[in-house]
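F.,

This is the one I mentioned.
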């Protein structure tokens, strides 16, 4: 049953990603407000990793909508796609960072829908992927484009200013001062597990990242996948963020790692776009890469003179993520044809990471 007026990002559930809706509703019935009404389920079609669904209970003006998130199909890398971690963060983060949707329920029993999942509130806004939508001028409005580039940086700096202790997230990570070292070794291990053929450049990059570890600034809360298409902005103002999504890797650690993640996908007009779904950073008026780094430094008060290292690391991570996705396709764990070309894109990103070394 389709979800009426659910929005352009919602599609019918893909056949291989369906679950037993009756079993889900039975589990939710006494736990979630409004869950006793008839249930309709559709799927948010964007993204390549965690699966996200729209749950609509009832119909008409009184209908209630929620969002359900679960890991992707097939085996997942250790420590990734952690629904319990995402639930833990979102169950309290909204108190100090209102742009984080509030999570209501977590279920660790895979018998319900086939995997752990959590349910959170639905936030409505415009998600900008790849191209600037017509509602903001379709890329032709330089002022709107600049606002989109500024909001992704400014919101990140605002998030890094959140004190985790009053909301109970100060224990979210063990030894956050060594976060970056653990990340480099962890992502190297992910690459080794996901490789489907040799790549000496990727191996050499992993060694370079470990050999050139910088001294990290004071730890903060981290999102760990910060980018424009993990945000929603107001339909009447591209410079006003209304939600930030995808918190399954939220932790404590080096804030410049978040900056590196977003800058890794930031291509200036004369450069080739990075990744499979880049931000529209080449649109006229969009901040340049170095302007974006400088703006973060000004907004946060942090020294960003070593940002190039984090740029390389962010690009390396992006390559590994795409290789992991391709590995699932290569192993037959998913039949989604969008993933068939990911191995070549990953190779291109490893080369881009190498070219960005200072």
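My design for it:
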């Amino acid at each position: 049953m389709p979800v009426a007026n659910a929005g352009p990002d919602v599609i019918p559930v893909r056949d291989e990603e369906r679950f037993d809706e009756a079993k889900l509703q039975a589990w939710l019935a006494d736990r979630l407000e409004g869950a006793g009404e008839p249930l309709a389920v559709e799927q948010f079609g964007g993204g390549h990793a965690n699966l996200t669904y729209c749950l609509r209970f009832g119909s008409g003006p009184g209908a209630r909508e929620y969002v359900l998130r679960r890991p992707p199909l097939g085996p997942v890398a250790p420590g990734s796609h952690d629904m319990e971690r995402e639930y833990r963060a979102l169950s309290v983060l909204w108190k100090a960072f209102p742009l984080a949707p509030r999570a209501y329920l977590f279920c660790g029993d895979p018998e319900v829908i086939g995997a752990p999942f959590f349910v959170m509130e639905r936030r409505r806004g415009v998600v900008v992927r790849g191209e600037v939508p017509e509602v903001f001028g379709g890329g032709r409005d330089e002022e709107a484009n600049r606002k989109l580039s500024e909001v992704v940086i400014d919101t990140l700096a605002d998030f890094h200013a959140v004190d985790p202790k009053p909301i109970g997230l100060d224990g979210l990570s063990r030894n956050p001062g060594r976060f970056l070292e653990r990340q480099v070794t962890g992502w190297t291990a992910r690459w080794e597990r996901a490789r489907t053929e040799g790549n000496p450049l990727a191996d050499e990059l992993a060694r370079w990242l470990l050999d050139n570890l910088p001294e990290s600034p004071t730890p903060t809360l981290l999102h760990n996948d910060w980018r424009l298409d993990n945000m929603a902005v107001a339909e009447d103002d591209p410079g006003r963020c209304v939600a930030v999504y995808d918190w399954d890797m939220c932790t404590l650690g080096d804030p410049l790692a978040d900056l590196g993640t977003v800058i890794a996908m930031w291509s200036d007009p004369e450069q080739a776009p990075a990744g499979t779904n880049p931000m529209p950073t080449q649109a006229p008026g969009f901040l340049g890469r170095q302007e974006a780094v400088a703006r973060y430094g000004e907004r946060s008060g942090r020294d960003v003179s070593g940002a190039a290292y984090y740029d390389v690391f962010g690009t390396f991570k992006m390559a590994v993520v795409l290789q992991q996705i391709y590995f699932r396709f290569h192993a037959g764990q998913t039949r989604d044809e969008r993933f068939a070309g990911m191995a070549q894109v990953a190779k291109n990103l490893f080369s881009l990471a190498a070219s960005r070394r200072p």
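The domain at 134-355 is CATH 3.90.1200.10 (Aminoglycoside 3'-phosphotransferase; Chain: A, domain 2).

Talk soon.
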